[in-house]
Write a structure and sequence with these properties.
The complex is a heterotrimer of chains A (666), B (165) and C (294). By secondary structure, chain A is of the alpha/beta class. Chain A is built from 17 helices and 35 strands. In chain A, helix 1 runs parallel beside helix 5 and helix 11 runs parallel beside helix 12. The relative contact order of chain A is 0.10. Chain B has a four-stranded parallel sheet with strand order 2-1-3-4, sandwiched between helices. In chain B, helix 3 links the parallel strand 3 and strand 4. In chain B, helix 1 crosses helix 4. Chain B is elongated. Chain C has two domains: 119 residues, Glutathione S-transferase Yfyf (Class Pi), Chain A, domain 2 (Up-down Bundle); 148 residues, Rossmann fold, CATH 3.40.50.11810. Chain C is built from 15 helices and eight strands. The chains are: A alpha/beta (666), B alpha/beta (165), C alpha/beta (294). At the A-B interface, helix 4, helix 5, helix 16 and helix 17 of A face helix 1, strand 2, helix 2 and helix 3 of B.
């Protein structure tokens, strides 16, 4: 240990850690300390066994007091590990923590080199670089940004509902926005859920009611987010409320207007029933819709399109007078602190695989269509029937349609094996048909799911391992006449089979919503290469995004089943609540800033920022950086031609000194 | 110029989220590689100003290595695209200046690719060893000496001319 | 529109009706076909199975000639030639060893192959370059009432054709529909006809042929339209054997270009329709519709 008292303004304390044998085994620590002691402005230069330990940290604090240190360098492990620790130690010693610099001589030196001389030389060079750099460090403060406690949840499926309820129950105000006329999402279309065979409506509707009656939840259905401005804790969101032509406060859901509609018979494809039956222009999406309010389709209603209708619906609603053809679209602004995006998924379009005959042969249906057939409140009152009304005696389920496929989608949609087995069980229950499942692999993780597979086998459902090559109506034998023939290689049996069935169910995969790219831009998120919203870290931060204050949950982040969606909804709610509870956000001070006197207003920096943190101030004709939005990447800094954009903690002079210092030691 | 003890010296700029983490992983995995690279940590490869690269070479580095996230994976969304653009232009300038292409290298290395750190560094060190030292500081000194000598010669010449005029 | 033209051995031999109908039809539509000078056999599936590297050299010579003389779009009607030439192009691009062999061999004949030649199928050229509308304009004798089963065979649509779907192609369907014909739903449109097996293992090959014929009849087709000389031969020439083993399934199989020729008012003997074993009934008998215009 050597102490050099210096008269200069800068008084550096240098510490090289032995880390037991980890560093000292290869790097000659005393030699490095001695070398650094000889550099200008170094007041203290020590080597010590374990710097991160309490005594090690106390050593720094003591030296700050006794030797008047105003810069501290620790050469030890990776800053990714202990930078925070040492910054805190320095702060506890009474010095601004950003006067600290760390040198990595373990992960980048002692652990990866074998020659003692060379490793020590490298350590000296790195130390020299840090000494030169730290001279230019400035005192920086962590900024605190206050948080608006209100939360926006986008998407009213099971995920959004659960997130909204969790946050509402915590006493915070929630805006739940859903673009369909009712909440419930895809789960409302299911009959039973795997593996318990719970009735989907029975477990969903209580939650939907809870949302409706919750004092902290403002539910806006038939609405969409159109603009998001601001930053974490302070978002201003513009919501477009589409006109239902029905006053939500007055309508009681009696549906007399539907009965009285000028259309005597329903004529238009019913979206909730996936086109399996029809509805009128005035309709309610499904019986348990929340809100229990009818909606009028402006594309189909004669009154809205032509102005010439006898308006029998108005007459039917003479008591409440809830129908209002003068309703207009409204744009409403709300202010929230956090946003949870739970916009769900869409199903793969099976016409993209013509080999399976969807759209060509009427008795090829998708899994969702079968769900609607099987549901007792569905278009066929729970009867599984072929298009001609007869009962199917045989059925084939084709798995991985639009999943695990290099020609369409590479990913596994995770739920199809399970929901296909569920539907197969229900199929047999309703029709006593002979059911075969054609699979590549059966994926049944999750509690009770493997047991569910056993149950399927016990109930006599057949399983053929092979990827179906085609579905055809070409009959090779009398038994095949009039049926759909599945041609498949039965890989376990070892030959190609032709299996005639009455009905085929395609387990269509999950895909990102059609407008996922627009939506993600709206919320300043990224999408992964496959189109799902991108989480901050696939393992450690699955519900956070790279934009602080915006969280994702449910299938919009990737295919998953209901339990996992609810888990993510809770996780996102917890993350939001954690921020709200703290009341403020701490920002790392490595933000960029503009030195206005040097800025010429060339605007080179403005389009570079992916976080829109740089604005051009028309009044001053200079660039301005919003420190709350700036994430500290430094891209604008290196682009600025005049050097007027700078970055705290990564200033040009700091880096140039680091370069010079590194090359000074030969 | 030919120092038998000469070892290549490479300055590296690694982005915090991907390449620096990968180098840490290489350390944790105790992979062994050549000790000729000195790393400067930046938050994003987009912070790499081409002037840093020029300065490093001018101050005596024999090569510069830039490490960032794979395209599409940048922690700050698009920083590495900017790096790519700048690097592409810089390469052309380097060629014009007569600096060999292998001396300045850009690699996308993700946080899980510890092995690649080892491979890239070893490869680059060998390439530069084969190229020999860049020796710009010595070059600058030599040019300075030349200039000074020329200036003296010119000054003397004009003196004698004045004297004879 | 100018194209180089690679007939291949079949179109000069058993498949001459394909050429006889293709050339006048293309001419009628304004496309000039320049037969490749001194072309050689492509090797077809036979040589590819024996020695793939040498087969590529053999086929590449034709590509090199096309590049040398131009135009570089090489119209290749025969399905086997189409597949072999495409495969050769892919092999040269993907495998340096094959590229070396090809370059070396071609050099001895002062030829080079740079990858610029494009192998085009008549369906591709008719559908994408000429267009269904232009074809419709030339129809003087609509094939109204003629039920056609469009049969593509397997070699053109798989694996190299990018101009149509591999399992459910529709270019020929649309061209035939433009002629006024009624397209019959024919799910076996890309199933193998038996290929060379009809000669080597007839109990397997001819059975496949029989299935195709039977299904076309079942679907109510008057005629099967095909694009491949081997398919046409298999579907047309083996009826006696098929009858002996599986049953009668007589339905005429013609080239789609012959149907185009008929619709354009070209005389049937000119189109080679007399070469069929199972003759197509004269159009007037099938669809008594008065010709349009002259």
């Amino acid at each position: 240990m050597k102490t050099n008292h210096s008269n200069g303004d800068v008084r550096i304390g240098f510490y090289i850690c032995h880390c037991g044998h980890n560093i000292a085994g290869i790097v000659d620590c005393p030699a490095v300390a001695e070398y650094v002691a000889g550099l200008p402005d170094v007041a203290v230069s020590r080597d010590y066994k374990y710097m991160c330990s309490d005594p090690g940290q106390e050593l720094i604090q003591q030296d700050i007091r006794e030797h008047g240190l105003n810069r501290v360098i620790v050469a030890s492990c990776s800053p990714l590990l202990h930078e925070h620790t040492f910054r805190n130690a320095v702060a506890a010693g009474g010095l601004n923590p950003y006067y600290f610099q760390m040198v990595n001589v373990r992960e980048h030196d002692s652990w990866v080199h074998t020659d003692r001389a060379e490793a020590t030389a490298k350590a000296k060079a790195l130390a020299h670089a840090a000494v030169d750099r730290v001279r230019f460090h400035k005192p920086l403060e962590i900024t605190k940004v206050p948080i608006n406690p209100d939360v926006l949840v986008v998407g009213g499926g099971i995920t959004g509902i659960h997130a909204a309820l969790t946050i509402g129950n915590a006493g915070k105000k929630v805006f739940l926005i859903e673009r369909q006329p009712s909440i419930g999402g895809h789960m409302a279309q299911f009959d039973k859920t795997f593996p318990t065979l719970d009735c989907a409506a029975c477990i969903l509707t209580p939650k939907m009611s809870a949302v409706r009656s919750h004092e902290n939840i403002t539910l806006w259905t038939y609405s969409e987010v159109v603009k998001v401005e601001g930053y974490v804790g302070n978002y201003t969101v513009t919501v477009k409320r589409k006109p239902r032509y029905v006053n939500e406060d007055l309508c009681v859901g009696c549906q007399e207007c539907i009965k009285a509609c000028a259309f005597k018979e329903p004529k238009f494809p019913d979206e909730f029933n996936v086109g399996l039956n029809k509805r009128k222009p005035v309709y309610i999406p499904f019986p348990q819709a929340v809100p229990q309010v009818v909606v009028i389709d402006p594309e189909r209603c004669i009154q809205i399109k032509t102005g010439k209708c006898k308006k029998s619906c108005l007459e039917a609603c003479v008591d409440r007078q809830a129908i209002d053809f003068n309703q207009k679209e409204q744009l409403v602004e709300i202010k929230v602190g956090n946003i949870i995006v739970a916009t769900g998924f869409k199903l793969f379009d099976a016409t993209r695989i013509p080999e399976y005959g969807y759209g060509l042969y009427p008795n090829v249906v998708t899994s969702l269509e079968l769900e609607r057939l099987v549901t007792s409140s569905g278009p066929t009152a729970g009867e599984i029937i072929l298009r001609d009304g007869s009962k199917p005696k045989t059925a084939g389920f084709i798995l991985c349609v639009g999943s695990r496929d290099t020609k369409t989608n590479r990913w596994c949609s995770r739920t199809c094996c399970m929901h296909s087995m569920k539907l197969a069980q229900l199929f047999k229950e309703h029709t006593d048909a002979d059911v075969t499942v054609f699979y590549m692999d059966i994926r049944a993780p999750g509690k009770g799911c493997e047991e569910f597979y056993d149950k399927s086998l016990r109930e006599g459902i057949r399983f053929v391992r092979g990827r179906v090559a085609e579905v055809t109506d070409w009959a090779l034998s009398p038994e095949e006449e009039g049926k759909l023939v599945i041609r498949v290689e039965d890989t376990l049996a070892g030959f190609v089979r032709r299996i005639p069935v009455d009905m085929i169910v395609l387990a269509v995969g999950m895909e990102p919503q059609l407008d996922a790219q627009e939506v993600r831009r709206l919320f300043n998120m990224s999408c992964g290469s496959e189109g799902w919203f991108l989480e901050k870290h696939p393992k450690l931060a699955p519900v956070s995004t790279f934009t602080d204050g915006v969280f994702i949950a449910g299938c919009c982040q990737g295919p998953k089943d209901i339990p996992d969606s609810i888990a993510q909804a809770g996780a996102a709610a917890a993350e939001a609540l954690a921020l709200i509870d703290k009341g403020y956000i701490e920002q790392e001070p490595n933000t960029a800033y503009v030195v206005e006197t040097d800025c010429s207003g060339c605007k080179s920096c403005v389009p570079l920022c992916p976080f829109t943190a740089i604005l051009f101030d028309e009044a001053t004709q200079k660039a301005r950086i919003n420190a709350a939005l700036c994430k500290g990447c430094g891209t604008c800094v290196s682009a600025c031609p005049s050097g007027s954009v700078r970055q705290n903690l990564f200033e040009d002079e700091e880096i140039f000194s680091e370069i010079e210092g590194m090359l000074s030691y030969v | 110029m030919s120092d038998p003890n000469w070892q290549p010296r490479i300055v590296a700029f690694f982005c915090n989220w991907c390449t620096y983490t990968a180098a840490d992983l290489a350390g944790v995995s105790r992979l062994k590689y050549a000790p000729n690279v000195r790393v400067i940590r930046l938050m994003c490869s987009g912070r790499v100003d081409p002037q840093f690269i020029m300065d490093a070479l001018a101050k005596g580095a024999d090569g510069v290595l830039i490490g960032g996230c794979h395209i599409g994976d940048c922690h700050y969304v698009e920083g590495n695209y900017k790096t790519l653009r700048r690097f592409t232009m810089l390469k052309r300038m380097m060629a014009d200046m007569g600096i060999e292409e292998q001396r300045v290298r850009m690699e996308w290395i993700s946080a899980s690719e510890g092995e690649r750190i080892k491979t890239v560094i070893n490869e680059m060190v060998e390439q530069i060893r084969a190229l020999g030292p860049l020796g710009l500081p010595q070059q600058f000194e030599e040019w300075d000496r030349e200039m000074t000598a020329l200036e003296h010669a010119a000054a003397e010449k004009s003196e004698t001319e004045v004297a004879h005029a | 529109m100018n194209y180089s033209y690679f007939p291949g051995c079949s179109l000069k031999g058993l498949g001459r009706a394909y050429e006889e109908s293709l050339l006048p039809v293309m001419r009628h539509l304004g496309a000039e076909l320049n037969e490749l000078n001194d072309w050689n056999c492509c090797g077809a599936t036979a040589y590819m199975s024996v020695d793939e590297e040498q087969a590529c050299v053999l086929a590449a010579r034709n590509l090199a000639i096309a590049e040398k003389t131009g135009p570089q779009d090489l119209l290749t009607p025969c399905s086997a030639c189409y597949l072999v030439l495409n495969k050769t192009q892919h092999n040269i691009a993907d495998f340096p060893q094959i590229r070396e062999d090809v370059d070396r061999a071609l050099k001895t004949a002062n030829l080079t192959y740079t990858g610029k030649a494009a192998v085009r199928h008549p369906l591709d050229v008719l559908f994408h370059d000429i267009g269904v509308e232009a074809i419709k304009q030339k129809v003087v004798r609509p094939l109204k009432g003629l039920k056609v089963a469009p049969y593509y065979g397997c070699q053109v649509v798989r694996p190299y054709a990018t101009f149509d779907h591999a399992w459910n192609p529709t270019t020929m369907d649309e061209i035939l529909a433009a002629l006024g014909a009624e397209i019959v739903h024919y799910p076996l449109k890309t199933k193998c006809c038996g290929g060379s097996l009809t000669g080597t293992v007839p109990e397997a090959g001819l059975r496949m042929t029989y299935i195709l014929l039977k299904e076309a009849i079942r679907r109510g087709a008057d005629v099967i339209a095909t694009i491949c000389p081997l398919c046409q031969f298999n579907l047309d020439a083996y009826h006696d054997q098929i009858e002996k083993h599986w049953g009668t399934a007589r339905i005429p199989t013609v080239y789609f270009t012959q149907l185009m020729g008929l619709a354009f008012g070209i005389e049937s003997r000119q189109l080679g329709l007399h070469r069929n074993f199972v003759r197509m009934k004269p159009l007037a008998e099938i669809t008594p519709v008065a010709p349009v215009g002259v």
